[in-house]
Amino acid sequence: MKLKKILPLSLILAFTLTACNPPADLITEELSDPDFSEISIFEETDLSDLEETEDPDPEEDPEETPEETEETDPEEEPEEEPEEPRQKLNSADYILDVEFEPIYEFDYFMPPNPQYEPTSYEDLLDRYYDSEYETMNFVRYEILYQYTPEEADILSKIHSPDSRPIYRIRVTYDYLNQKELNIETNLLKSGSLEWQYEGTPPYLSGQIYVSPIVRFEDEDFCVADSDFLFAVHNINDLDFAYYMPRNMNDNIKFTNPKYYNLDMEMFDKERSVITSTINNPVRYTQKSLLDDLVAFFKEDWAARGYAFENTDNLVSQMNVR
Fold first, then answer.
1. So what's the pLDDT on residue 29?
2. For every residue of 285-320, which 3-state class applies, written as one string?
3. What is the distance in angstroms between the CA of the first residue and the CA of the last residue of the chain?
4. What pTM, to 2 d.p., does this model score?
């Protein structure tokens, strides 16, 4: 783009007066048309030669300094934001639908123990914590395999025609102390293959459970506390704990309004599931999101002053296979 530069006014006036009032010595000479070809009151100027300048902001104070920011102590930790409420799940989106291949058919139900019939969560705690157990644990374990009756007799001092089954298990997580484990040990289960407790048939390889487990020093096996025994099923990438209480007691519930998914709606197909025994399905009485169940136990037991056991004592025990 080109601009025209206007010549000074004095130059234009001088030229005009000279043209209109020539000197006397020039009047007698032959006048000729003036040559304006070399004169122009406009000149082309290239904008590229002009420096661009910005108008200063009249409101801006050149001496104004930026606002000083409040310095924070590098060692001071930021305040933790309050934990958001747990999301309430729609139980209908997480319905247990599993199929197992049963391998047993039992002959006789073991009668319930008439001397022990808890009616509440408090009853369970009274029995557990006031017994010989001095600490609490709550661990996750997988059933690896079941020993044969001959192998079980080597591991146990209990010798009877109806030997109770012993399983090789792998303990993988300690929920109360929040640490991963990799411990193989032996687990004794109540009942037998022929004399089973109704609603709690023998385990199958690959099944996963959570419960407190206790090791007896004079025996080379552990036992799971059947009052706090839950089967774990993964449904749509979430782990759910299904309560399978001793004697199928429907009166015991774990509840706390803080945990939305602690006592979830159950559907008929979830209450009775055939696993290892064709004529003795597992009976589930409560469904919980595993994370909420663990959080509830941990908070409640800590508030009661229960000590959390160091699960390092659950060392690998003799394997006769």
1. 44
2. CEEEEHHHHHHHHHHHHHHCCCCECCHHHCCCCCCC
3. 96
4. 0.71
pLDDT computed for residue 36 by the predictor: 46
Q: Using CA atoms, how far apart are residues 139 and 224, in angstroms rounded to an integer?
A: 10
Q: Extract the residue ranges of the chain whose pLDDT is less than 70.
A: 1-86, 112-115, 128-134, 156-163, 217-218, 316
Phi, psi (deg, nearest 5) at residue 168? -90, 125
Number of Cβ within 10 Å of residue 86's Cβ equals 15
Which residue type sits at 213? I
Cβ pair 159, 219 in contact under 8 A: no
Q: What is the pLDDT of residues 109-161, one digit of tens each?
A: 777 666 677 888 998 888 766 655 567 899 999 999 999 888 887 776 654 54
**Structure tokens that stand for 179 in this block:** 């640490």
Residue type, 103: I
Distance from chain centroid for Cα 162: 44
| pLDDT value of residue 241 | 98
User: How many Å separate Cα 55 from the centre of its chain?
Assistant: 57
Nearest one of 312, 243, 320 to 282, comparing CA atoms = 243
Of 246, 241, 249, 257, the residue nearest 291 (C-alpha): 241
How many residues are listed for the chain in this entry? 321
Q: Which secondary structure element, helix H or strand E, spans residue 170, and what is its range?
A: strand 166-174
pLDDT of residue 67: 54
- Tokens representing 25 are 């010595």
Nearest to 258 by CA among 303, 307, 225, 212: 303
